[in-house]
Design a protein that fits this description.
The chain is an alpha+beta fold. It is built from 3 helices and 10 strands, in the order E-H-H-H-E-E-E-E-E-E-E-E-E. The strands form 2 sheets. Strands 1, 2, 3, 4, 5, 6 and 7 form a 7-stranded antiparallel sheet that branches. The protein has a 3-stranded antiparallel sheet with strand order 8-9-10, with no helix packed on it. The relative contact order is 0.15.
């Protein structure tokens, strides 16, 4: 949940360079036919990005992410950032999860719809900070938390042919040409999607 203040809007304007008066000058906003100050669209985009990051951290990666600004949000109201898994599928041997994400105002109206796909890589067992350990590529259901963790929809260790090898810290999955590539400490880059 986010609750913007006029001060936050001024700070965002300074950081982003978006000084359109409707975001920080109530008189200008009203003279433009608005009810008062309105929240920057790019700030709402950042809120959704934070939502996605929090779902997949620490080992996940947001592959694609976008939203559109279809409604006005005003400071002082509770904005809820939400999301659901719309599709989990396999395409050419590649496992993906597509998410629908959005911000809704206190009346339940969606003001900022968006979509995203998330992947993650993590050590399966042991501490990757102290030794080389086995790793796995995963896809998450960002709406289901089980025992404090995101529900896994895909795990590369399910089939021996999908074995990723040794986990490499800071090596996030890269999606290109319809495939997922993962760098490893097994002296190889593993490719999914063939």
């Amino acid at each position: 949940m986010k609750r913007c203040t006029p001060r936050q809007l001024v700070m965002w304007a300074a950081a982003s360079g978006d000084f359109y008066e409707i975001h920080y000058d109530p008189d200008s906003a009203r003279s433009a036919g608005l009810p008062g100050l309105v929240v920057h669209g790019a700030l709402k985009h950042a809120f959704l990005g934070q939502l996605l990051h929090d779902w997949v951290a620490p080992g996940g990666r947001i592959v694609t992410f976008g939203c559109s600004y279809r409604g006005l949000d005003v400071p002082g109201e509770d904005l809820r950032c939400r999301g659901v898994v719309r599709r989990a599928y396999e395409q050419d041997g590649e496992h993906r999860v597509e998410l629908e994400i959005w911000i809704e105002d206190p009346r339940g109206e969606v003001t900022t719809p968006g979509t995203a796909v998330v992947w993650g890589v993590y050590p399966v067992n042991g501490n990757a900070n102290t030794r080389v350990v086995h790793g796995a590529l995963v896809a998450y259901d960002a709406t289901a938390v089980v025992n404090g963790k995101l529900k896994r929809l895909f795990w590369s260790d399910t089939l021996p042919a999908n074995n990723m090898g040794n986990f490499a810290k800071y090596s996030t999955p890269v999606v290109a040409n319809g495939r997922v590539y993962v760098g490893t400490f097994s002296n190889k880059v593993v490719q999914y999607g063939l």
